[in-house]
Amino acid sequence: MEEVDKILIHALRHVGTEVGEGIDRVNQFTSELIVEAVVRCIRVIDPGLGGALPASLPPGMSARFRVGMSLAQVCQDIGYKGEIGYQTFLYSNEPEIRSLLMFLVEKLPRETSEASDQPTGKSAVLHRAIAAAINAQLAVSWVPLNCILPLHCETQSKAASQRFQVHPFSLPHCTKGQKYLTEVKEYQRDILLPVTTQFPSQSSMVSSILEQHTAELSNTQERDTEWKSQGLLSRLTPQEYHSKKLTRLCKRIKEQLRSAAAPSPESVFSVSRSTSELSDLLQTFRGSGQSDFILNKGTHFTHTQKFTFTQEAAATMTSVNIGRQSGSEPQLQQQEELACLLLQFQQLCNDTDQIAADMKYMRVTTTQVFDELKQRELENAENKKKMQVKKKTIDLLPDADNNLQKLQSEVEESASRVVNLASQWEKHRAPLIEELRRLREICSSKALESSTKLSEIKSLHEKIRMATEEAKKKEESYKQLVTELESLPQDVSRSAYTQRILEIVGNIKKQKEEITKILSDTKELQKEINSLTGKLDRTFAVTDELVFKDAKKDESVRKSYKYLAALHENCNQLIQTIEDSGTILREIRDLEEQIETENCNKTVANLERIQDDYKAIRQENSALAAKVREG
Q: The domain containing residue 330 runs over which residues?
């Protein structure tokens, strides 16, 4: 118990309990120290419950009873299952206090659990330092820039209010096993600026570098994930897989560009619709208010109507202008020339529309003619084949019998040839089928083997990933432990704790060995007692039987038989007496242990303290009664 008490005292000192240097056992704790230790532990476990508890006992006895009851209730609320009450704190009992303190120490939050929830490694230390610096800056009150005093210049400056921006920049890449042109090398060596000079401001350098690094890292992770998920199934090398994917993407882009650039077959017949779509597109870009300025192509009829309308409008405009400006001859000539030019322009537009319509019609007719020509050529080819067959049959008609015989003989020969070829084919077909089946079996076995190997490769990749992650976690935890070890005070002797632990383990081993030896000796004694008891019973049975046979004939033998029975009974009584004495000795030892525990419980001292407290309570009650009478 000494080691347990030392561990408990060390934990209580760690939570802030003022335990004296000379105290090294729980039985040396006073009531005030017990209350302080319990309250300190409860405040660490649950600050909400421990905040309202006093850390020391008040002078009045009734207040002490109330504090003891409240402490007992709080201990039960946090999960203590043992017997507890105000007497546990006011009239201390060593086993109860030890079990209560052990429960509270076990409920304390562990540093290891807090450290396991936080990220590990140098980055975690850096993050905590950054968080501490930010919290320190947030704790400082904000002051406008024009009101900054010399005292606040270090914490609040213009540099802290700048916004980080990302700018593109170039880096010289040199991957192993990849060849570069001499021009690229010369450009990177002679022309490419350093990274620090490629940014408009130095404040955006770090953010730009971090942004590009994050993009490259995510791209690499996506490539690795795609290779592990889809690339392994293609059974290609990583370079072949990525090159094949690149060519496939280039091919798709080219096809999309061709399909976007090539006109559709319906565009020949729907030029007017495309022009209307173009006008709608221009309308969407220009807005709804400028629809009058869009030049629509239209038909010949619409252009004729527009031409007549423009002529009338030009005539009216000229008449109005002549009426208004009768004295200006040069302007009148200019208007006439403009009207003539407009008429010529309109006539040219009509001619172009007519030519475009004629071209459309000619294109349609040419396509129809080409289709009819192809159909006629196919029909002519079929007719030629039919004509050749009919011509050959007509040539054979004059000598029909001989030709029939020849045809019959040819048919028979061809049939025999077919049969011969079929037999030969069967001879060649059987080994080929066997070879095909064998190859299929080999292919299926190889496919199965490849699938199993592929699954094994996937599992190995997964194991490698898990192993790398575990290695990273262990390395980070190792780094954190090293940093924590370096930050710990070096005056603590670790070897002393280790030696104490080894001594405790050695004592436990010795006690186990002694207990095992005692158990083995007890078993041997029990076996010996059982064997002797059985031997005694068997001997008495045999002797009883022999003496009883002779006792019927001889009087002296009959007396010896009585003495034998009395001796056996006395031996049984003696054995029973010895067993009763052993039981009594065990009970005596149990009573002595109970007496020792009662002595440890300080029953007499507690009774004396209870009597003193009773007297103090009676005095307080009498004083209160006197105050009540006086009032």
A: 298-395
